[in-house]
């Protein structure tokens, strides 16, 4: 398992043997355990950002972690604007990072 995930047995909040899952993130397989959010799987895999801002292209990832800021949005199985911190990862999920350019303003 990845370094950010506590080993089973050391984690008192998870008394049962975890079930492994795999998701793909921009085509790369990331391993997780059942019950983790998509953001949790991403962080555990060592990825700290997975979205770019529209205006400056600045990297974004987890900020609030509670579904308030929308910094963590990704596309999951074709659905855009899914908050990675609020979506439980499911085995086989296909996650794509998001970057949308600013819309053109017409007068
Ligand atoms: S990190 Fe703020 S909504 Fe997900």
UniProtKB/TrEMBL annotation:
GO molecular function, a single term: oxidoreductase activity
Keyword entries, A-Z: Oxidoreductase
Pfam families given in the database record: Fer2_4
InterPro entries, alphabetized: 2Fe-2S-bd_N, 2Fe-2S_ferredoxin-like_sf
UniProt keyword annotation of Ribonucleoprotein present: no
Protein name: 2Fe-2S iron-sulfur cluster protein
Native source species: Microterricola gilva
């Amino acid at each position: 398992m990845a370094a950010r995930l506590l080993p089973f047995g050391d984690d008192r909040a998870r008394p049962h043997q975890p079930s492994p899952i795999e998701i793909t993130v921009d085509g790369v397989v990331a391993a997780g355990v059942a019950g983790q959010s998509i953001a949790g799987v991403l962080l555990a895999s060592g990825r700290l950002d997975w979205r770019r801002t529209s205006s400056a292209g600045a990297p974004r990832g987890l900020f609030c972690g509670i579904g308030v800021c929308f910094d963590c949005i990704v596309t999951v199985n074709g659905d855009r604007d899914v908050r990675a911190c609020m979506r439980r990862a499911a085995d086989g999920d296909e996650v794509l990072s998001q970057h949308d350019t600013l819309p053109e303003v017409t007068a």
